[in-house]
Amino acid sequence: MNEDENNTDSAPPARVEKPRVKTRRETRFSWIWLVPLVAVLVGASLLFRDWLHTGPTVTISFDSADGLEVGQTRVRYKDVVIGMVTGIKVAPDRKTVLVSAELDRDGSEYITQKDSRFWVVRPRLGISGVTGLGTLLSGAYISVDAPQKLDEKASPVYQFEGLEQPPEIRSGRPGTRFVLVSNDLGSLDIGAPVYFRKIQVGQVVGYSLDAKGDAVNIQVFVDAPHDKFVTRDTRFWNAGGVNVSLDADGFKVETGSLVSVIAGGVAFASPEGSDARQAAPNTHFALASTRDKALADPDGVAFPIVMNFAQSVRGLKVGAPIDFRGLELGNVTDIDLAYDADKKRFYARVQANLYPLRLGDLYDGMVERAGKNGKPGVSLVSSLILHGLRGQMRAANLLTGQQYIALDFFPDAPPLAMDTTLSPFPIPTVAGSFDRLQQQISSIVDKVEAIPFDDLGKELHESLKSLDLLIRNLDGKVAPQATSLLRTAEKSVARIGRMLDQNSPLNDNLESTMRELSSAARSLRALADYLQTHPSSLIRGRTADPMPVTP
Q: What does the domain layout of the chain look like in residue ranges?
């Protein structure tokens, strides 16, 4: 044994470490559970988002639910969808229909105000034209008109009464409302235009009887900036329809635009030199029947008079003018038949109103001399009667036979002292004169005698000869050509008949086209049904067809 082997045997053996065994920890969570967990989170987020956007539910009453559907009819404000109809039911009293609509949370505080208005938008034919044509494709919807300013102190309102007609004026539309007072409504209606210098600047928005029922209050709205032209002294008149009048001046016909003739209208203007300050909102104005009456100078307080005529008053009508030297001082208000027991005869009692203010400076001077407690009208008329003022009926129009009353001075009339305490104040009369009628008849006779009847007869004879020659030419030349033209037209009509025959190629092509259109309509209907059932397919696309299951 050598030295190396001895060293090896004497060395201790190497120590081997004990192996450590690590056991793998078992996974208790399966990743497959992430799918329902994510679905739950997505559903919860959608519910939370829907809860954030869901606002209050309002109830609107309508006469009927025509065109409204639950889950389909939307609520719009300024053409923006803000809610959806969630329920429709008949009211307990069975007079109306209650429509429940769920609003979005954003902006719902403006909708739930007391003055908010709801109505159903559907195709309507009105004075201003056809509206709501877009609903023929999209369906009817509920529109809202809410006040522009939010009343934070007021409590929200959730019960509303719907309008059957859309409001003519929406909230926030710049302009001013005014009230016109008239004896009757005439041809005016809601939506009738309001004109200024024949330009439409507004419209009629409503009307109602006043508290006493003896007048009609017509509400008009004038758009800004045109409302500044309505001043404190502005005059309004009825510019609608066709105004036909027959008076002492003859036959008159006044018409406006075609729209105003059909739907009526109102016009206004301000007299020159009038108060230029703008009228306040809801100012009341009188509505005159014509422009002339509206722009006439103010008449002041009427002065009632009475006149007795022993002659016939045929042709004298209520409203006939009272004329004084060509100036219309008043109008007849009543015509009655009275009996004089002393003289044993009947006479006509004519009552009228005079407006002394139309005399101008003369009446102003009488007012100054009479003082505050005096009667300037009585003083003026009684002094004129002392100088021969009398009333006389005169012919106003020879063709119509109308008459008027003229106040004139007659030097031969005896002076009369009238009782100034009587009301209405009596004015003496004189018999009518036929001089003017005789002059008119004489003038007509002279004009008739001046007509050259002989020359007219000769010209008429020559014209008849020319007409006879023309008829012969038509019979000899034009008639054959017309016959040929009718034959050609008959052949053309026969060709058109063959073209439109039931078995013609044209009808076959039309039937084929209609079948293709019907097929396309069915495809669109199927697509709409599929989208209604799977609305998410617009975003995610069409779902894959299910895999066939092998048995």
A: 49-161, 175-295, 303-438, 452-482
